[in-house]
Amino acid sequence: MTASDFILIAPELVLILGGLALLLVAAFAGDKVSGVVNALAALVFAGAIVALTITAQPGAWAFSGTVRIDSFSTYAKYLIFAAGIVILALAPRFYEREGYRSEYPVLILFASLGMAIMVSASDLMTLYIGLELQSLSAYVLASFTRTDSRSSEAGLKYFVLGALASGMLLYGISLLYGFTGTTSFDGIANAFGPEPGLGLLFGLVFVVSGLAFKISAVPFHMWTPDVYEGAPTPVTAFFASAPKVAAVALLTRLCVEALPFGAPAWQQIIAFMAIASMLLGAVGAIGQRNIKRLLAYSSIANVGFILIGLAAAGNEGAREGAVTSVLFYLTVYLVMTLGSFLAVLQLRTADGRMVEDMAGLSGLWKTRPGLATAIAIFMFSLAGIPPLFGFWPKLLVFQAAVDANMLPLAVIGAIASVIGAFYYLRIIKVMWFDPPAEEAFPIEGGAMERGLIAVAAAYVSVLGFALIGPLTAASTTAAASIL
To answer: How would you label 321-339 residue by residue, b for 16+ Cβ within 10 Å and e otherwise?
Structure first.
């Protein structure tokens, strides 16, 4: 352990020191300084981004090779920290009725710290530490509104099923260690020969299954609709964005770095989860009337599309393009998801009550045309309908599948996209063609919320195509760093 190790993890140190300091402030000053703590937490994220920019490395190891600092982890951390700032920006107004509590931004900081460790992990122990730090914070966040029985139920379900997933992950880690004698990704890759034994394959299956829970991939998705519906809306937005980026990045690094010789095995598992997630996400959302549950199934479906790219990475010849498509998709998906939830948070009645039923959107275009237009852009983009920017990442993952000789997977993805377009278009039909609902939404968010919605809508609109060049270059560099 040297000074250079700590320099390499400067962003994580910023989160650690900032989180601990704000925890003390929250403990001694209480909720009366919650607004100050929230603003300071956003500054901590900004400091972490600055530290990340300064200390970025093309490829370096810290703490005896257990932590990898490279372009891949740097790319993922930028997305995670940016999402954290947005989540902190939208939380105070949501909690203003029951009072905003100071520990909320602290939990967001520590959850993001766990995610930063996850994407930099190059050892199974580091992987588990980061994953559990993120999960423990997430369990509390899910049940944060203690007076709401739905929130308490969401937290309990998430905790019980999360504990099960952690057990599966630990069992898989123990198998990989037992049959390879190491927890290092590089050591496992060297021991995992072209013809792995049955024990190694079992370990692979359990580890991938444990991580699949974190990304809501079928058949480990069962917690997602209930938790998304019951958790406070800002928490749901958080679950649907930053943790997805971290878990997918971790799964990608694990498969590509630690299990390259196990590609024929994990490629089949990932492909199955991709198909099942796309189809269940598309079909399951059709009967939903709660907006947050619908977005939960949308999240499951989008994870399926992302996994198409990861499955294609099992083919060595198409690996770089496949990993690039995964990172590109995550970048666009993050903005689409955060924008959608920012728009949902605008649906408040005159007494400040949140409206989550789809019927409440009826005739929104006549009462709030700007908000209705933004929601329409997000829905069209999530559906992958050209010429909106959400079409491009889907095209990239389909192209990656074709390049990897997995044409049937790309065809199934295209079919799932068509099915999924139904429920996105139904939302637009309700907003634009149904008579206005009895409950209008007179309460508008502040200038910051409206600005964030406008920026997100512009990003995923036709204007987003101007960013294809720099995003492709950044994601290609990040993908090359783990190959």
So the answer is: bbbbbbbbbbbbbbbbbbb
Please give the Cα distance from 321 to 312 (Å, whole number).
9
Question: N- to C-terminal Cα distance for the chain?
Answer: 26
CA distances from 454 to 27, 29, 197, 299 (A): 36, 35, 53, 22
Strands 59-62, 67-70: pairing is antiparallel
Model pTM score: 0.93
Averaged pLDDT for residues 97-101: 72
- CA distances to 144, 197, 215, 259 from 205, in Å: 33, 13, 15, 11
Q: What is the reported pLDDT for 439?
A: 59
Give the pLDDT confidence of 20-76 residue by residue, as tens digits.
999 999 888 877 888 888 889 999 999 999 999 988 777 788 788 888 888 999 999
What is the pLDDT at residue 423?
83
Supply the pLDDT for residue 441.
Answer: 59
Neighbour count for residue 296 (Cβ, 10 Å): 27
Q: State the Cα–Cα distance between residues 300 and 412, nearest whole angstrom.
A: 15
pLDDT tops 70 at residue 1: no
Find out whether 270 and 287 touch, Cβ atoms under 8 Å: no
> How big is the chain, counted in residues?
483
Task: Write the single-letter amino acid at 429.
Answer: K
DSSP secondary structure letter of residue 62: E
Average pLDDT of the residues of the chain: 86
Residue that the structure tokens 């997933």 belong to: 165
Q: Is 272 exposed, middle or buried (0-12, 13-18, 19+ CB in 10 A)?
A: middle
Query: DSSP code of 345?
Result: T
Q: Tell me the one-letter amino acid at 314.
A: G
Tell me how far apart the alpha carbons of residues 283 and 273 are, in angstroms, rounded to a whole number.
15
Using alpha carbons, select from 38, 41, 43, 112 the residue that is nearest to residue 79.
112
